[in-house]
């Protein structure tokens, strides 16, 4: 047993470049795990810088200085975000408030239907179970409970001070990341050991994949959200803007997100139309959107950037989401791709390289 472990260690950790790569990954992982809250503005800025790097690079090729290109792209991006927020946020807020106000009526209707089913099929659900369920729902909908929950949300995630800091720091960081990209990359090399050829190989593979993933994910969110909103609005579904935004954001969680957002869409459609042709047409349209997203849009946008088996992707969402919350979910696929790249690049004298490719 000891000789086996010794041989295994020699095969995989005798290369100094491999040791350097391991320390770099462990160091970055520990920094993110223990300092994710403090590093949140930096992470947001890095994501936006990856997203905006392509137009800046194209403008630089046309002879425009990188400082001017970064300024133009950042101002245009912030202007677009401001227009979207001013145009979309009020409608989503109104529909959210309306949905909360309508929840008791929707729940009463649903409980009436459930009581009818209970009387007809008592072997599946009893009246006592329905009463217990109703008590729990009433507790959840208690006004004071909702107010306390709202205060908690506001206190932890949307304080005015935090928003002001983000509004100032993030655009500044994005500007300097875009403007001084080469200098920052060159300067960061002095913090790493000289034996970093393996780390450089992994970085070169991941750099383009991360850029493709972030760009593709943003485009996917916009397309799925806009198309869903248009379909919902044309069919007369209530809360179409709110549900369209939720459908767009659901693509952040591969496979699981689409399943989760199906429930509120189906419930709103059912309480609006009941089991009618309109309900069937809406769910069919929603199914077509999800099918086109998964079978057409995702392959077009990501191509080789998501060359992972679905089981690996779901496992990555669970693991990295558990470690880093929203950021872990958003970067689950790139992080899984990083693990795959490290396993493929890691020196191994005896056994073939491990891969996580989809078959």
TrEMBL record:
The keyword DNA damage does not apply. It holds the Pfam family AI-2E_transport. One of its GO terms (cellular component) is plasma membrane. Keywords: Cell membrane, Membrane, Transmembrane, Transmembrane helix, Transport. It is a multi-pass membrane protein. One of its GO terms (biological process) is transmembrane transport. The keyword Transport applies. InterPro entries: AI-2E-like (IPR002549). This is AI-2E family transporter. It comes from Shewanella algicola.
């Amino acid at each position: 047993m000891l000789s086996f472990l010794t041989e295994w260690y020699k095969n995989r950790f005798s290369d100094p470049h491999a040791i350097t790569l391991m320390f770099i990954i462990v160091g970055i992982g520990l920094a993110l795990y223990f300092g994710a809250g403090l590093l949140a503005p930096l992470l947001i800025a890095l994501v936006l810088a990856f997203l905006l790097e392509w137009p800046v690079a194209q403008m630089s090729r046309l002879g425009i200085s990188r400082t001017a290109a970064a300024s133009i792209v950042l101002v245009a991006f912030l202007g677009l975000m401001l227009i979207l927020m001013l145009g979309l946020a009020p409608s989503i807020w109104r529909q959210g408030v309306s949905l909360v106000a309508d929840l008791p009526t929707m729940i009463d209707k649903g409980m009436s239907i459930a009581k009818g089913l209970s009387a007809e099929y008592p072997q599946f659900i009893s009246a006592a179970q329905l009463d217990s369920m109703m008590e729990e729902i009433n507790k959840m909908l208690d006004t004071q409970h909702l107010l306390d929950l709202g205060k908690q949300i506001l206190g932890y995630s949307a304080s005015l001070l935090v928003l002001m800091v983000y509004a100032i720091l993030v655009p500044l960081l994005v500007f300097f990341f875009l403007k001084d990209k080469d200098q920052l990359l060159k300067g960061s090399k002095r913090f790493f050991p000289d034996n970093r050829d393996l780390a450089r190989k992994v970085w070169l593979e991941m750099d383009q994949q991360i850029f493709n993933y972030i760009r593709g994910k943003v485009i996917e969110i916009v397309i799925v959200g806009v198309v869903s909103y248009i379909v919902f609005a044309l069919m007369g579904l209530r809360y179409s803007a709110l549900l369209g935004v939720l459908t767009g954001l659901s693509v952040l969680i591969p496979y699981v997100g689409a399943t989760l957002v199906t429930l509120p869409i189906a419930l709103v459609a059912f309480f609006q139309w009941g089991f009618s042709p309109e309900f069937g047409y809406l769910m069919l349209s929603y199914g077509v959107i999800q099918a086109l997203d998964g079978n057409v849009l995702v392959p077009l946008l990501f191509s080789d950037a998501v060359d992972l088996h679905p089981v690996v992707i779901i496992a990555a969402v669970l693991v990295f989401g558990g470690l880093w919350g929203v950021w872990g979910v958003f970067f689950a696929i790139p992080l899984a791709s990083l693990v795959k790249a490290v396993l493929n690049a890691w020196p191994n004298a005896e056994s073939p390289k491990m891969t996580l490719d989809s078959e």
